Every structure is written in structure tokens, then in C-alpha cells.
Predict the 3D structure of the following.
Amino acid sequence: MSPNARGALFALAAFGIFSTHDVIIKVLGGAYSPIQIVFFSVLLSFPLATVMLMRDATSGTLIPKHPWWLALRTLAAVVTGVSAFYAFSVLPLAQVYAIIFASPLMITILAIPVLGERVRMRRWMAVIVGLIGVLVVLRPGTTELTLGHAAALAAATGGAVASIVVRKIGAEERPVVMLLYPMVTNFVVMGCLLPLVYVPMPIEHLGMLAIVAAFAWTASRMIIVAYQAGEAAIIAPMQYSQIVWASAYGFFFFNETIDQPTAIGAGIIIASGVYIVLRESRSDASQNTPVLRTRSRSETGTTPRISLFMRAEGNKPPRKQ
């Protein structure tokens, strides 16, 4: 089996696990506020984050070198986490994914002022086509837009902002700094709001949240293996396989079906996203490759980010021969 094929298989399996993770979030979202779900997701993720902290060999403190950029990333991660968890709880899975898949389009736009990226006509056309796909999914004027749709859009936007900030400061900030600040902020903010929405949770539901944390960790590690085995231009588009998982899970567990506008809009968004990835993979088309470097999973501030995992792996001292 070729390295690209092996990497693609690992990525497909990882995004299948991520989709199962989102199904559990949807199930719990029927009984609990996203604030409560985010709080306990973060709480149960701290042991995994501690493992990452122990493996980081980079010297230095936990004081950020770019506090304002990190504050923006933290805010974006908090918004993304609550928004995504709420959207999954009230909208069909496939529709949420279709909207969140617009995040690479927003990253491409944000890369211009933040990274100084030059976006030429072809990528601009891909962005415009992708945004048309978002409108096809949302169908403004012909269907009622709910708070769930707004939450999915907020998750896509927040994920794009968090990703572009990582691309901006990631070379200078320690991975553990960029990991811990969003997690701790989520823990504190959601903890302060928790008394307003708290509903007692039986042990089996806490166990489901522990599974959510374990799934996120496992899938993240598998995506690292995928990127180490194959080319980014091959691995990154594998995230769109989640629409297949969402369709199957939605049909069997929630009696959901994809309507024609959602299917058409998702196809348009995916096509534009794949085109942007392929354009960025050409050395003469993109200086910063901001979409290729997002590692394909939106930032939620509840679990370690895949690109931070990869940087921590790269910071380990070489083995002695």
C-alpha cells in the first residue's frame, strides 16, 4: 500500500471517529445545555492535555509571547465550542457539517489581512462559489433560519479565526500555551455559567462525555499518523467524508434525511474547498498555505488541536543512537 493510500485510510477512520464523537454530542444535546456539555468535555480532557504537556520538551514558561493574538484565538475557540455543540443538538448532522465546511473559505479570506497572503482570481472564484453553496444550504427567504443555523455559521467563523491565528503565531508560541489557554478559559467561563443551566447527570452520561474526550484524542492521533504517512493535499480533503458518516448516522439514529438543497449546497462547498486545497499545494500558488495547515478539524477549545499535537511531536528531542 502506498504512503498516500495508508494516510488516506487513517484519515478516513479518524474522521469516522470524529463523526461518532459528534453523534454523542447530539444525543446529549437533547437533554443538556451546550454550556454543561462543553464544561464537562473540557474537564474530562484535562488529563489528556496533561499528557501532552508532559511530552513537550520546549523550554520556556506558559506566558504567551503574543497575548492579544492568543486572546483572539481563545475567544474564537470558546465561541466555536458552544456554537458547534448547540448546532449539532438542534440541526440535522449533515446540515451542520455542510455549513462548518465553509470554514476553509473563510480562512482563505482571513489569510489576506492577517498573513499577507496573495489570493489570485482562481481561488477567489472558488471562495465565491463556496459561499454560494452556503446560501444554497441555508436557503434564506424560502426556509426559516433558526438559532441553530446561526450557531453553525458562528462555529465555522470561529474555527476559521482560531486557525488563522495559529498560522500567524504558531511558529513562536509553545503548543502547550495555545492549547491550555482556550481550555482553561472554556473551563472558567462555562463553570461560571453552569449554575444557570445545570441538570444532574447520571453516571452513564458522564461516561459518554469521557468517551467523547477519548474519541477526540484517538482521532487526533490517527490524523497525525495520516499526515506523517501521506501528503497534506491528499489527507486534508478526507475531512469531507464526515458528510457520509453524518448521512448514515442521521438516517439510522435520528430519522434524518438530506434534502436536495443541502445535498447540492454541500457538494458545491466541498468542491470549492478541495479546489482551494489543491491550489495551495502548488508551490507557486500560495506562500502561506493557510487551509492546508489547519489539520482539518475546527478548533473548539475542548480538546487538543491536531496541529498542536504535531508541533509537540516535532519538539521532542531526537533519540540517541
Remarks:
- Residues 3-29 form the longest helix (27 residues).
